[in-house]
């Protein structure tokens, strides 16, 4: 329980978790699962949703004033004056959770509805890729050439499509980078069905690479299994796999050349905490890496954390100790806003949408909460100081030129590591795209999931507001992710040739420094 609750972002919740078997006969229809909700039901769910947020969500007012939060809820209550299907109400809840500004927020419809949609032959058949602000066709061996610009799908323009998916992609503060790429790269599975309903076919308008004339193709919808198979062989798969923690080892090291080392950290889940038997193995690995760099007088080190969604203490602090001359902490302040117990426990689901927490686990969880956050004083229940130790520099520290590769998918412990690197690392240059996780603060550590009684929508948020050990920097505005020194998105020509734009950029910087 402790290990699971304290896992910063083990995996972003799946949009296809349910394994509920198909119902039989006429009962297995969308109207059964996407049932019509009455205004009274939705108002009760909305009020409970707001009450839970006010009682337990320490980040509710971090990026939005009370007036702004009140305003969006007034809008939501106005929207539910007439009956509507569950998925339409779900979209309202999505906008409320997105407005808060936390990449740990997550919202999911009832598992039976998810399962029903997953069983339908209604999925978009092709892979798409966000490149230079456009929706680019990314499937091989199709009637549409790879690299074609998508103009519209079923009459909805590319820009309208992208914007419609922003609410599904929560981010810390006001960051939009992951919304931009995610609205194309990861929104044509279930999200498309949520947003636009079940379709038998898709009419695609596109412009071929180098062309100027729009062309049109209509294709039938396919099953989820067929879509997954198509995605595996997408054009960009070789480059995408480089930063995919599902494909690559969690951590690895190699020498690119005699003067440049490459340390990849794909996810900070190599150990749950310092007591995990896997942690000493990881620590010895890092020590060997930095001893190799030191003994070889290696002048350049690239640390690649692109795609890293997070993990747990102290896995992300461990490499940082070799990169700095300064002592540092995980945070300067961390707190919840409630005392003992779980607020609105009657509606509490657990810490995973897949499994409801049982009574014994609740007892254990409450004991852990009491240990980490012992007592409410005023409006804050401050973290027990024993869980926020000071980390000191380690030898042999890397004294050469450090390059940190980040992208818009770096979140939670991944972005926290990037924040520490930007704050305290020696001689560092950061390359890539602004992270979805914040530089100064975030809500994390301990997720709670609640189920709304009428709509059965599940809502997840993290209860601990963490003010990171992140000094104020001129190029780090409030409410943003880690801003790279060199902003580099994947380029169209590199996409066509399956080149890693960001790594190529770093290697050019290193060559210029030589």
From TrEMBL:
Entry-linked Gene3D superfamilies: 2-enoyl-CoA Hydratase, Chain A, domain 1 (3.90.226.10)
Pfam families in UniProt: Peptidase_S41 (PF03572)
Keyword Zinc belongs to the record: no
GO BP terms in the entry: proteolysis
Signal peptide location: 1-16
Any one GO MF annotation of this record: serine-type peptidase activity
Domain of life according to the entry: Bacteria
Keywords, comma-separated and alphabetical: Signal
Domain Tail specific protease: 281-438
Protein's name according to its UniProt entry: Peptidase S41
Taxonomic source organism: Chitinophaga agri
């Amino acid at each position: 329980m402790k290990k699971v609750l304290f896992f910063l972002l083990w995996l972003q919740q799946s949009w296809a978790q349910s394994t509920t078997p198909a119902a039989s006969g006429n009962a297995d229809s969308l109207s059964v699962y996407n049932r019509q909700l009455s205004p009274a039901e939705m108002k009760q769910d909305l009020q409970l949703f707001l009450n839970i947020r006010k009682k337990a969500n320490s980040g509710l007012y971090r990026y939005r004033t009370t007036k702004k939060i009140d305003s969006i809820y007034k809008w939501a209550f106005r929207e539910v004056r007439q009956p509507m299907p569950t998925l339409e109400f779900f979209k309202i809840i999505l906008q409320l959770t997105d407005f808060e500004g936390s990449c740990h927020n997550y919202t999911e419809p009832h598992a039976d509805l998810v399962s029903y949609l997953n069983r339908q032959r209604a999925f978009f058949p092709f892979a798409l890729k966000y490149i230079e602000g456009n929706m680019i066709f990314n499937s091989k061996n199709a009637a549409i050439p790879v690299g074609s610009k998508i103009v519209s799908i079923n009459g909805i323009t590319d820009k309208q499509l992208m914007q419609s998916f922003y609410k599904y992609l929560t981010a810390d503060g006001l960051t939009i980078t992951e919304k931009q790429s995610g609205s194309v790269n990861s929104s044509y599975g279930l999200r498309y069905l949520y947003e636009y309903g079940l379709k038998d076919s898709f009419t695609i308008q596109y412009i071929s690479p180098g062309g100027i004339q729009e062309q049109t193709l209509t294709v039938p919808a396919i099953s989820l299994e067929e879509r997954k198979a198509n995605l595996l062989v997408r054009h960009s798969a070789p480059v995408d796999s480089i930063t995919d923690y599902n494909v690559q080892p969690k951590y690895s090291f190699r020498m690119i050349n005699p003067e440049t080392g490459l340390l990849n950290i794909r996810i900070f889940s190599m150990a749950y905490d310092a007591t995990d038997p896997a942690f000493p193995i990881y620590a010895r690995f890092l020590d060997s890496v930095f001893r190799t760099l030191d003994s070889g007088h290696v002048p350049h080190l690239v640390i690649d954390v692109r795609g890293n969604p997070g993990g747990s203490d102290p896995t992300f602090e461990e490499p940082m100790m070799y990169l700095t001359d300064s002592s540092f902490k995980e945070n300067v302040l961390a707190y919840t806003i409630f005392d003992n117990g779980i607020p609105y426990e009657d509606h509490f689901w657990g810490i995973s949408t897949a499994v409801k927490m049982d009574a014994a686990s609740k007892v254990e969880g409450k004991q852990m909460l009491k240990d980490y956050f012992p007592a409410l004083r005023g409006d804050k229940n401050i973290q027990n100081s024993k869980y926020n130790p000071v980390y000191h520099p380690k030898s042999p520290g890397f004294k050469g030129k450090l390059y940190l590769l980040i992208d818009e998918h770096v979140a939670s412990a991944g972005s926290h590591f990037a924040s520490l690197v930007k704050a305290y690392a020696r001689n560092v240059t950061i390359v890539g795209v602004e992270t979805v996780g914040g530089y100064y603060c975030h809500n994390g550590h301990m997720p709670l999931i609640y189920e709304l009684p009428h709509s059965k929508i599940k809502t997840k948020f993290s209860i601990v507001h963490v003010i990171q050990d992140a000094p104020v920097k001129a190029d780090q505005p409030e409410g943003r992710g880690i801003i790279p020194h060199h902003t580099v998105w994947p380029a169209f020509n590199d996409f066509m040739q399956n080149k890693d734009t960001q790594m190529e950029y770093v290697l050019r910087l290193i060559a210029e420094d030589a």
